[in-house]
Amino acid sequence: MTSQEAAAVPPSGGSSSPGDDATITRQQWKVSVLGAMASYLDAGSIVALGAALTMFQTAFDLGNGAVGVLTAIGPNAIGCAIGAFAGGRLGDKLGRKRIYKWDLLVYAVGILLIAFAANPAMLFVGTFIVGVAVGADVPTSLALVGELSPAKQRGKLIGLTQVAWSLGPVVVLLLALILSPLGLLGTRIVFLSLFVAAVVTWALRQGIAESATWKTAAATGATARATVAELFRGPNLRAMVWTCTIYTFWGLAAGTNGIFTPYMIETLGAGSQAASVALSCAGFVICIIAVVFVFMRLSDASHEARRMMWGIGSLMQVAAFGIYLVLPFTIPVVIANVILFAVGGTLAGEPTYKLVSQELFPTTLRTTAQGVTFGVARVLLGVWSFFVPLLASASIGPVAALLTTFLVISGVVGYFWMPNTAGKSLERIEQERAAVG
Hints:
The structure is a single chain. By secondary structure, the protein is an all-alpha fold. It has one domain: Growth Hormone, Chain: A. It has 18 helices and no strands. The protein has helices at 3-8, 26-59, 64-72, 78-94, 96-115, 120-148, 154-179, 184-205, 212-219, 222-225, 234-267, 273-298, 303-322, 331-347, 350-360, 366-392, 397-416, 426-436. It is globular.
């Protein structure tokens, strides 16, 4: 029996994993909330850095190239990728809990370095550490949520992580707006708020049990036998190509939008720092509304419902950046971009990537696969981020044209090749894919 086949055997006895039951227990909600904090801290740190870029640039006399490097090595890109590669693999080998339980302390150390940065070295090192920590946390946290979710409620609980992903920036941006009169001191306080959130979440996570699904696979020896090579053949390879393509090209647009919107609005003279922060905050609030009232309600309904959401969302996102090609870069046009991308990204973006990534890969390779696709996307975003300040310093046109192209690729691939996994248990999906393989 191969490791994939062993992982496909349904758990039994006390280690039973959720099946088709549509009821979410209090414990499942609790674990999902604590898992969702990985997304809160990930997005919160990305946006905090984005909101602080101009202040750090002034305080430490950083050129456009240095700003690009700073964003490239942090939670938005390469640092996160390194953490995802390592944390994802260790999550499959050692268990979700070991990574999930301790990496937030590393995150807290990195945040403190940024908050108390007295020179560029502290700022750059802290940013890199934060990136590595969130990169390790996200795949393991998502796997834990996905593996405890009832089959017909998986989208709802994974959607909760996306609510947290949007809530983090809302809190950070509101704090940044309120504290903006304090200048750099206000920025430091914003980062300290993330430190407090990380430490509190770490403390609450201590009582969380290991994934029953992973424990069952480990008991059969399947986790020890599984190799990374298995990801690059058969159904796993097709799943890797699909998830990596949609997330990488969508992520290039989303990452640029998240960290550089305030920077570009100020640099290109479309509005003040307060206006840029307020617009970004509004976008994340819209994301929360769209996740709760659309994605969490429809993502488990049927395969057709998922494809419909993806198609509509893709068109909205393409329009969001396409308008920059025909209209001037002004606040009203930025508002239209924020609304279209916020709703479109919810329907055809990261929430679907997170959800389907839990469904497409066997238990023995679930966090490894997510670490690879998440990591590849963040590496490419890091390379891209290095050039964005240089491209955007003169005009929004070149950036908008490239982002529109990226979103077309993600939309087309996601719609026409979306796998049919909605509402199925993880065990059933593994059995079906093992048979096909």
